[in-house]
Specification:
Layout (H helix, E strand, L loop, with lengths): L1 H20 L9 E4 L5 E5 L3 E10 L4 E18 L3 H5 L16 E13 L7 E9 L16 E9 L6 E9 L4 E8 L6 E10 L3 E6 H7 L22 E7 L8 E6 L14 E10 L15 E2 L3 E5 L15 E4 L8 E2 L2 E5 L4 E10 L5 E11 L5 E4 L5 E4 L3 E9 L4 E8 L2 E6 L6 E7 L7 E11 L4 E11 L5 E2 L5 E5 L3 E5 L2 E2 L7 E6 L7 E4 L2 E5 L4 E10 L5 E11 L9 H33 L1 H6 L11 H10 L14 H12 L12 H10 L15 E6 L6 E6 L5 E5 L6 E5 L2
Parallel strand pairs: 1-3, 15-21, 23-29, 31-38
Antiparallel strand pairs: 2-7, 3-6, 4-5, 4-6, 4-7, 8-14, 9-13, 10-12, 10-14, 11-13, 16-19, 17-18, 17-20, 20-21, 22-24, 24-27, 25-26, 25-28, 28-29, 30-33, 32-36, 34-35, 34-37, 37-38, 39-40, 41-42
Length: 734
């Protein structure tokens, strides 16, 4: 508590002292001037002062001052709200009253400094006071007057240049430093202009990389090798100017530092206060650069080319986007503006592109770039078919195509297997259609249809399509005899002529007695064969082409007996014997019948008493059709059931063209014996050979194969089964 009481009492005493210090002692009257009346010359007498009204300024306004004094004076700067403190002889030597950065006491000679209004307040009126008196509150520091002083003063508001980075005074105590500007970056080739004006001391001014500054700022024991030696300003004791061209900085951030430390060798000692104005301005490099994603030494005709100025050095913003202009056609007139443009060259040739740039500080520069435009793209071709196309001979092949080119198509050729079949050398459209009649001119099989398109520069594109020409027609058979007669056992030549232009060869297959156990086959267009089976024989010739298509030729061969050189054949002899047997049997039966009639007339009365029923009638043709047509499934077998003797007799009567007896009188046994005795001298009865019947040939309605059937005499039609497929067929003479 005791220490707290002491502090409170001390505070109160301090307040009393402060109030007493700023209490009015008197009024200092200064000669008034203003910024508009400068420059001006004065003679300031002893114990006089001049107050210059600098006007009202916004924060961060730069003011420049130039002064000459032949004797020591005090230069003081006050805002409008504290300048009265000085004139009322109050204590003014505190930071809240005057602007210490722009204060110089006991100054003489020539000096220049720039000062920037602080940004901790709004618009403020400022006053510059030139003091040649002993102020009651200066504590004996600074100029105390005594002699008249000749003064020359000039002051003005600085209009900063476009690329001014810094422009203000820096006050640095011994062993310290002040950052003028940083970090910042510039393009290589940019000039960094450093202008230093010293009001007090002998500082050093360095340009450092960000890496070097990280070592410098915390310690004075940093390596001087980290400095950019070409930008050093050592021991600045008056006015100094250095234009430094940035190079080998590799895009690093930079710092500009006012140094008041000891060293390096040749630099300031760092033993006294420093007051120096440093102005840093840039002259950014202005080097327009044309870049493109396309190789400008070889640009394709019709290709969209992007031209960009993005590679132009512009870290300082020296060129706005609107500052770029493009002359594309080389006529000296700007065609486009902006950071990037797109352009298409429609014709081959060598072109010049010019890029001009105007910086914000009205400097200008330009660069030209040659562009070589050539036709680098072959025509684009598209066929309207995919995969293999199959077409038959006699059909029409149609293939549509479209094409395009960056410069223009000059001609096209349609080819088949490398030979041109259609050309067009005056194209007006970007499509073409090939219509081809598939004729016998082309061989069957796979072919290549090609479309060859040539552009104006001679570049060629070829697109191929596979087509397969196939035979869609069977061989054509020349006229031939569908029925022939041959002799039994004689060598017979069978020959068929067929034509098929789409096939290299034809396969002939002969089939004799197809579908039977005696089936045999031969190959070739000509066959020599001996037929050893009497009657009709079916012969089929199958002709097949390369495409597997077939045609059929059917020949009905009638095999008949043939005479040999030694007389009648056994077949003829057998036939003659059969005829003689039939004739003799008929004569014997006629005699027998006459004797029976004679006896019947003698014994008519007995016959009437013993008359019996007449024997059954022979079967009608309809009954025979039922017997022969539906009983047996095989058309080549005779009926199994034997006919009775009356029926046989009826058949014999039919053969002899003798009327068939309608009734027969039964004869008593004793009479029969008598009649037999009368006929003992008659020849022995010979049974006639039964008729072979009628042989018919038909084609199956289901499998179309031929077969034969023999119908008994008196039978016009019958049902039978096909020997090939078993289908039930109706066969008849109709």
């Amino acid at each position: 508590m005791r220490w707290v009481s002491v502090l409170v009492i001390a505070s109160l005493l301090t307040t009393v002292v402060s109030v007493d210090a700023i209490s009015t002692k008197g009024v200092i009257s200064c000669t008034n001037s203003n910024l508009d009346s400068l420059p001006e010359n004065w003679t300031i007498m002893d114990q006089e002062c001049i107050r210059v009204d600098l006007g009202t300024h916004d924060p961060r306004t730069n003011l420049a001052f130039q002064i000459y004094s032949d004797k020591e004076i005090d230069i003081l700067l006050f805002p409008s709200n504290t300048v009265s403190v000085y004139q009322n002889e109050q204590s003014y030597r505190i930071d809240s009253v005057w602007m210490e950065e722009s204060v110089f006491e006991s100054f003489s000679g020539t000096g220049e400094w720039h000062w920037q209004t602080p940004d901790d307040r709004g618009p403020t009126r400022w006053y510059l006071v030139i003091d040649n008196l002993a102020h009651p509150q200066d504590s004996g520091e600074g100029d105390q007057g005594g002699l008249p002083v000749e003064i020359e003063l000039d002051a003005d508001v600085i209009q900063p240049e476009q690329f001014t980075l810094a422009d203000s005074i820096h006050r640095v105590e011994p062993g310290g430093y002040s950052v003028v500007h940083g970090p910042f970056t510039v393009d290589e080739g940019t000039f960094v202009e450093i202008h230093a004006r010293t009001m007090a001391g002998e500082p050093d001014i360095f340009v450092m990389s960000e890496d070097a500054f990280s070592y410098y700022s915390p310690s004075s024991n940093w390596s001087s090798s980290l400095r950019i030696n070409s930008a050093d300003m050592l021991l600045v004791s008056d006015e100094r100017y250095l234009p430094w061209e940035a190079s080998d900085i590799e895009g690093e951030n930079l710092y500009i530092v006012v140094d008041n430390r000891q060293g390096p060798g040749g630099g300031g000692a760092g033993t006294s206060d420093v007051a120096v104005t440093v102005t840093v301005t840039l002259t950014p490099v202005l080097e327009p650069s044309i870049s493109s994603q396309t190789n400008l030494d070889s640009v394709d005709v019709g290709a969209m080319v992007n031209l960009s100025a993005a590679s132009t050095p512009n870290k300082s913003g020296q060129i706005p986007d609107s500052g770029f202009s493009w002359d594309i056609d080389g006529d000296g007139v700007s065609d486009w503006s902006g950071l990037a443009v797109e352009h298409i060259w429609e014709e081959p040739g060598n072109y010049s592109v010019r890029l001009s740039a105007i910086s914000v500080d009205s400097r200008s520069a330009s660069v030209s770039r040659s562009v070589r435009v050539v036709d680098m793209s072959a025509p684009s071709v598209s066929l309207g078919v995919t995969g293999e196309v199959t077409k038959g001979f006699g059909e029409q092949l149609s293939i549509a195509a479209s094409f395009s080119d960056n410069w223009g198509v000059e001609s096209l050729d349609w080819m088949i297997d490398g030979e041109i079949i259609l050309s067009n050398y005056s194209l007006t459209d970007q499509f073409s259609t090939l219509i081809l009649q598939v004729s016998e001119e082309y061989s069957p099989g796979q072919h290549v249809i090609s479309l060859v398109v040539r552009d104006r520069s001679g570049m060629i594109t070829q697109q191929d399509a596979l087509v397969n020409f196939i035979d869609v027609t069977a061989p054509e058979i020349s006229h031939y005899e569908t029925q022939i007669e041959v002799n039994y056992g004689d060598p017979t030549t069978l020959q068929i002529f067929a034509q098929d232009n789409q096939s290299e060869g034809l396969d002939y297959t002969w089939t004799i007695d197809q579908g039977t156990d005696n089936e045999i086959q031969f190959n070739g267009p000509l066959v020599i064969h001996e037929f050893n089976t009497e009657g009709p024989t079916n012969v089929v010739c199958r002709i097949e082409n390369d495409a597997g298509l077939t045609s059929y030729a059917e020949i009905l061969v009638i095999v008949k007996d043939s005479e040999s050189s030694n007389g009648l054949s056994w077949q003829a002899i057998a036939a003659i014997a059969a005829v003689l047997l039939i004739i003799s049997s008929g004569a014997a039966f006629f005699l027998y019948n006459s004797a029976v009639r004679r006896r019947m007339s003698e014994f008519s009365d007995v016959a009437k008493e013993d008359e019996e029923e007449a024997p059954p009638q022979p079967p009608s043709p309809q009954m025979q059709a039922q017997m022969w047509g539906r009983g047996d499934t095989s058309p080549f077998q005779a009926p199994q059931e034997e006919m009775k003797s009356p029926q046989q007799g009826t058949e014999m009567f039919d053969l002899l063209e003798t009327p068939t007896p309608q009734e027969e009188t039964r004869i008593p046994i004793e009479l029969g014996d008598s009649l037999l005795g009368d006929l003992q001298s008659s020849p022995e009865k010979i049974e006639p050979e039964p008729s072979k019947g009628t042989t018919l040939r038909s084609n199956c309605s289901k499998c179309s194969k031929a077969f034969e059937i023999t119908l008994p005499d008196g039978l016009d039609e019958a049902y039978t089964n096909c020997p090939h497929c078993g289908s039930e067929e109706l066969v008849g003479t109709n």
